[in-house]
Write a structure and sequence with these properties.
The chain is α+β, with helices and mostly antiparallel strands. Helix content is 32%, strand content 25%. The protein has eleven helices and 15 strands. The strands form five sheets. A five-stranded mixed beta sheet has the order 4-5-6-1-13, with helices on both faces. Strand 4, helix 3 and strand 5 form a beta-alpha-beta unit.
């Protein structure tokens, strides 16, 4: 639902995604897009279709039509081709594999026609023996990570209880525009051992390096960092920073999208991202726990600043994005019970060399580092990921400190998922 006084508009970040779609260089030519697969059983296709229809009728941006110039209109219904039901229950194993491979190939990197209202999509494939695969994808011109996290949670709730009462929503105002201390540089890429050819690339395919930590490991890491006055959000960034430093590279600049929660009563399916640029220096010799505390202080300082720092790079490239769904569980229990577990995920972001993503799960923590296949330095990223993983496991072997979140309470506000909040 759209409020009577405030109409949806794109943020500057959303507009930058539209520009990135059209670029023929600097890792453009892709949408800011996320694709997820869930493997489950006994999903009712007709019931899911009705739940999807109710969901898209409820959230304005799922019906948005956006042209290349950023003009936005809200349609009365979701655009054509946003839901597909494929019945493969009688197919043999070879045909099933081919079908699922084709689905991933065609949907995982697609550039949807936003002008026709195709900003998100849902595919349900019914498989032999009662199994199913559900594929969800979304263009982040529609909403940020919080937004599609809320969509998935609400989809599960409507599917489980088609007559459930949902609170009315209004469209809130746009995030406030801030004044920035703009630092102009030719490029931030030289601080890293990858991306040397990124300025000349566009339309890439993407791959990821993934590792899951179980619930006990996540809780142990939380206790370790919170006991030292930081939190998991800054702790994982500290581990990433410490393992990145080698040779004469003393540190780097990270672009951190902070996903602010929507105020109560407002539609959360929109972009409320606050970008924070954080310079992390002299990391190689630092203890990760102590470094996390300093990162926490620097992050809070940037967020509170009247004129936070923003980098403007001549090559339009962002070498490192660090993202963390600090506002709750990525995939909730209700969703998993209805549709199964997350089994595959990939994303693309224009102009970004490496997107180091971290997701809080009900049963642990998922890290997924995403980068273009065609970009030079894949081996360096793989080695960095291995160093990062080794450090995290070394920290897990340390004794946990006592509780004492300190400054961390101001960093990671609100941990409930969309379905748990309600």
């Amino acid at each position: 639902m759209v409020g009577s006084e405030v109409r949806p508009q794109l943020t500057d970040l959303q507009k930058s995604y539209l520009v990135g779609r059209e670029l023929k260089r600097s890792l453009g030519g892709v949408a800011c897009h996320t694709y997820l697969e869930f493997d489950g059983a006994d999903v009712d296709g007709a019931r899911l279709r009705r739940a999807w229809k109710r969901l898209t009728a409820r959230h304005a941006m799922t019906r948005a039509r956006v042209d290349k110039d950023g003009d936005l209109r809200i349609g009365s219904d979701a655009g054509n081709n946003t839901f597909w039901l494929i019945d493969a229950r009688e197919h043999d194993d070879e045909n099933v594999r081919g079908l699922l491979d084709d689905c991933r190939k065609n949907f995982s990197h697609r550039i949807m026609d936003l002008s026709r209202g195709q900003g998100c999509g849902l595919v349900l494939v019914l498989l032999p023996a009662g199994r199913s695969r559900m594929c969800f994808d979304v263009d982040l011109v529609l909403c940020d990570v919080n937004g599609f996290q809320e969509l998935l949670g609400e989809l599960a709730r409507i599917y489980e209880d088609p007559d459930c009462a949902l609170p009315p929503l209004i469209w809130g105002g746009a995030p406030s525009v801030r004044d920035f201390n703009v630092v102009e540089v030719d490029s931030l890429v030289p601080s890293f051992a990858f991306g040397k050819n990124a300025a000349g690339l566009s339309g890439c395919r993407y791959r990821s390096l993934d590792e899951r930590f179980d619930e006990a490991s996540r809780e142990r890491l939380q206790a370790l960092f919170e006991g030292a006055g930081s939190d998991l959000f800054c702790g994982m960034l500290a581990c990433l920073a410490k393992t990145a430093a080698s040779g004469n590279r003393d540190g780097f600049v990270a672009n951190i999208p902070w996903f602010a929660p929507a105020p109560d009563g407002e539609d959360p399916v929109r972009d409320l991202t606050e970008l924070v640029w954080l310079s992390v220096e002299r990391t190689a010799e630092r203890d990760a726990v102590a470094l996390a505390r300093e990162i926490c202080a620097g992050f809070l300082e940037q967020r509170a600043s009247a004129r936070p720092t923003r980098y403007a790079c001549s090559d339009s490239l962002v070498p490192l994005v660090y993202s963390f769904n600090q506002n709750g569980t990525f995939i909730g229990d209700t969703f998993r019970a209805a549709f199964g577990d997350l089994t595959y995920m990939i994303s693309q972001t224009p102009n970004v060399c490496l997107d180091a993503q971290f997701f809080l799960l009900n049963d642990g923590l998922l890290t997924s580092w995403v980068f273009p296949q065609e970009m030079e330095g894949a081996g360096e990223i793989e080695a960095w990921f291995e160093r990062f993983s080794k450090l995290v496991h070394e920290l897990l072997a340390r004794p946990a400190a006592g509780a004492g979140a300190g400054a961390a309470a101001a960093v990671c506000e609100g941990r409930e998922s969309g379905e748990e909040r309600r």
